[in-house]
From TrEMBL:
Gene: recO
Keyword DNA repair annotated: yes
GO cellular component annotations of the record: bacterial nucleoid
Protein name: DNA repair protein RecO
InterPro entries: ARFGAP/RecO, DNA_rep/recomb_RecO_N, NA-bd_OB-fold, RecO, RecO_C
Amino acid sequence: MSFVKVQGVVISARNINDSDKIITLLSDKLGKIDIVANGCRKPKSRFMASVQMFCYGEYVLTTGKNLHTLKESNILESFQGIILNLDKVAYGSYFLELIDNLIEKDMKNVHLLALTLKTLYILLHGDISLLPLLRVTFDFKAISLAGYMPQVFRCVNCGDSNGPYVFSAASGGILCKKCVDTKELTLTAQELNLLQTLKNIKLEDLHNLNVSSVLVMNIQNMISFYIRNYIEREFKSLQLLKVLS
């Protein structure tokens, strides 16, 4: 029996009986893994707090082929303040569901883990008014780190860097007017600028970005359609986001 110590974020959890659950952890050493947490649902379990959604901790596991077993845990940051606000719960649940669908089991992506941690930190401590901008920025950066980065600086087809452009999810980014067959709406200068800004801006600098809610919504619609083009499923967490919006 071999033991391994990892650090990671609980991105999903499901009950398997009255006392046990399986958590999915985005970890630093093993990537996305499933872990059996025996007895964690019992009132006096020492694991109860460390297997909650959003929790970032240190976990000692016995390794298995498909499932690992939790032996010890230490909470580094619970992020449980998120659950005190319905808006933050909705956005946080969406962030974790997107991550869960972007990365395959056992796939290691420490950059995606770092992005998730930073996003949860801003979600916990940031103002609610920032959430739509945080979401579209997270979406852009997460899909980019997962290997689906949209091209937003030149035409995907011919390389033209002068524009004007349209955004094409099917093509993987922006297309110049010469390379577009359909009569799609041209990106405004503000829309193109925000798309390009999302690639490089640091999450901690988002509060300095002065953009309208309409502009953020327009870009979110583009990025959401782009994500659906690669992940052909509906996210359950989006239902609550739609209700709140």
